[in-house]
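FAQ: What does a ligand-bound record look like?

Like this one, built around S-adenosyl-L-homocysteine:
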Amino acid sequence: MFEERRRALVEKLVREGYARSEHVINALLRVPRELFVPEELVELAYEDTPLPIGFGQTISAPHMVALMTELAELKPGHKVLEIGAGSGYHAAVMAEVVAPSSAPREEWGHVYTVERIKGLVELARRNLRRAGYADRVTVVEGDGTLGYSEAAPFDRIIVTASAPHLPPPLAEQLKPRGRIIIPIGDKYLQHLYLIVKSEEGKLKYSKITPCLFVPLIGRYGWRE
Ligand code: SAH
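The answer part, i.e. the structure of the complex:
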C-alpha cells in the first residue's frame, strides 16, 4: 500500500520537475518515508507536505527534499554533511544516492548529519536503523553551525534549517568544487541558495527559490 503511494508521489515530483535524475528518483522510490513520520500521521506520509516530528520541528516536504538533493548533484562515493537531522529522512535519501543499496560497500560514500535536539538525535538514529541506513549515516549530536571538523572536508553540505547567513565553518569544511545548499533569510521567509566553491576556494551564490524552514539555532545561526 505504502509502496503504491510512494510511487505515485515520486511520479508527481517528476511531473512537477522537482525530481529529475535517475539517482534521486531511485532514492525517493527506495526510502520508506512512512518509517520517518510519527505513527499517528502515517496516513499522510506520501502527501507532499511537511509534518510535525515533535520538539517544534518538522520533516521537510518531499518536493523540498527532491529539489535540494538534485541541486546538490550528489554522486556515489561522496561524503556529505547535513545540518538538521530531524527525522533522518533527508539523510536516508542522500545516503541512498551516495551509498546505493545496489552498490558494493567498498564504493559507498557516507552521510554525517548533525542535530542539536537530543530527542531528535535519538529519533533519527532509531528511524535510520529501522529503515536500514544505520551504517551509511552517522547522526552527531551538536551545533551544526560549527560543521563537523572530525570528518571534514565534505563534498557536499546540506542545511535543512534557515540561517541568517552562511556559517563560516561550513565554507571552510567544504572541498574545492564542493556545493552547499542552504536556506538563508529572516525567520519567516528565506531563499534557498546554491553555493559553489571554486578550485581556488571562491564562493559563488545562486538564489534558487523562496522557501520556509525552521530556524537554524546556534553559534553562527539564530539565538535560541
Ligand atoms: N532534514 C530533516 C528536517 C529537519 S528540520 C528531516 O529530513 O526530517 C530542521 C532540524 O534542524 C530540526 O530538527 C532542528 O532541531 C535542527 N537544527 C536547528 N539548528 C541546528 C543546529 N545549529 N545544529 C544542528 N541541528 C539544528
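Follow-up question: can I read anything off the structure? Yes, for example: The first helix runs from residue 2 to 15.
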